[in-house]
Write a structure and sequence with these properties.
Radius of gyration: 22 Å
Oligomer: single chain
Helix content: 25-40%
Bound molecules: flavin-adenine dinucleotide
Distance between the termini: 19 Å
Largest sheet: 9 strands, mixed
Number of strands: 19
Shape: globular
Structural class: alpha+beta
Number of helices: 15
Amino acid sequence: MPAPDAGGRSAAAGALTDVRHVPYWLEGPAPDDQAALAGPATADLAIVGAGYTGLWAALSAKTRDPGRDVVVLEARSAGWAASGRNGGFCSSSLTHGLRNGLGRFPGEMATLERLGRENLDAIEKTVADQGIDCSWERTGEITVATAPWQVAELRELPALARSVGGSLEWLGQDEVRDRVASPTYLGGVLDRDGVAMVDPARLARGLRDACLRAGVRMHENSPVVSLGQHGSAVALTTAYGELRARQVVLATNAFHPLLRRLRSYVVPVWDYALVTEPLSAPQRRSIGWSGRHGMADAGNLFHYYRLTDDDRVLWGGYDAVYHYGGRVDDRLDRNPETFLRLAEHFAETFPQLEGLRFTHAWGGVIDTCSRFSAFWGRAMGGRVAYSLGYTGLGVGASRFGAQVALDLLAGHDTELTRLQMVRHKPLPFPPEPVRWAGIELTRRAVARADAREGRRGPWLRTLDAIGLGFDS
Ligand SMILES: Cc1cc2nc3c(=O)[nH]c(=O)nc-3n(C[C@H](O)[C@H](O)[C@H](O)COP(=O)(O)OP(=O)(O)OC[C@H]3O[C@@H](n4cnc5c(N)ncnc54)[C@H](O)[C@@H]3O)c2cc1C
């Protein structure tokens, strides 16, 4: 997007002056934490991390075998991290979008698309069966073009989707503006039912409750500091206890991985979001949006946005920030420069909402890997399995990731474990300082490509050639 003038910048800054730096979804009363692990304990299956991946793994393990003794160890409170603070787009895509999937797994994309739809249906069914009150709305999503080069790229998508059994619809400028009113839209692509909007924190807390009802034992405020082998068991050590388990699922996302070998595969990258005050009835009418679709634009650096239950707008994305050495620190949740940029872009997209103020601004960390979609593996003689690397599209894919991890632990030959996507890992990142320099160079090259009608320069073309380019 073009840089705004000084007036636009100060209006955007003014809209941010009252923000609370807390994720909108996590504000308000939280359930009491389950007691921390104290002393020695045993389990059939231990799960490290109580975000969506860990919670789905625990619930699914109990569903597969109700007699299994399942224990979850969580460093803080279930769902406090990415799972409780994301945009709430629960997508059927397992590959971070169609083009990224077609570029990396062309031979099995039709299967991955089908599995992704089945996965989204299964999430919807669990939400209904378990009575999870998470404002599930299967609205679909519209990806909009805000520059002519994006129109050309989006127009190709419906045919690409058809080639792998999917269905996307092209919307011309008037059709897309009829649905959501922004003067920046030049066209768009509608995915009618491949995406649901959820309240992410209520989904995480609902899954936590479902786990507890199923008999999963959970210990919060119990960071695992080491993982070791003890005879035929895996020993997980926390500050005040030790859990010995026959099998382990690691669901630690972007946090320091307990297996050294994973350090080169995942880098922590910050993603940021704002939420506005509730729209008044005239403001709401001025933007249309009666279908309440999830929205995203088609830039390489893209925004995602949606309505909340009480008709606020959540507006996030665009910047993706990596800190040297893979620093993970709560202080990085605040990024005024990015908040200001997001507020400016919001004002350009919806000028009719001038004067609307933001109430919440926050960030969270995502587990970026070089293929931008999850990967799996086993360690310690097959006793440990992990599912990581969702790269910012894990609300839906985390359930699939958990099923794969359980199949790997069971040693079963299943449709999931036979997938190329499951059998192969992404390319590792180089060590620092090359890692930081490479990520920074890529971030700048991507921003330049957006500013130059999508034309990718030599650096991005090289990454594309070696399979490290991003195209969602
Ligand atoms: C701002 C933002 C917006 C996003 N928007 C979307 C979106 O709209 N749609 C989408 O699909 N995805 C989105 N994502 C990504 C999505 O939220 C994640 O992919 C998903 O939540 C990953 O779930 P997870 O369980 O793997 O990880 P997390 O939710 O990060 O959970 C990992 C858990 O592991 C725990 N843990 C880590 N190490 C240890 C340890 N040693 N011992 C014990 N516990 C440990 C952590 O405390 C944490 O609770 C967004 C992410 C962010 C940050």
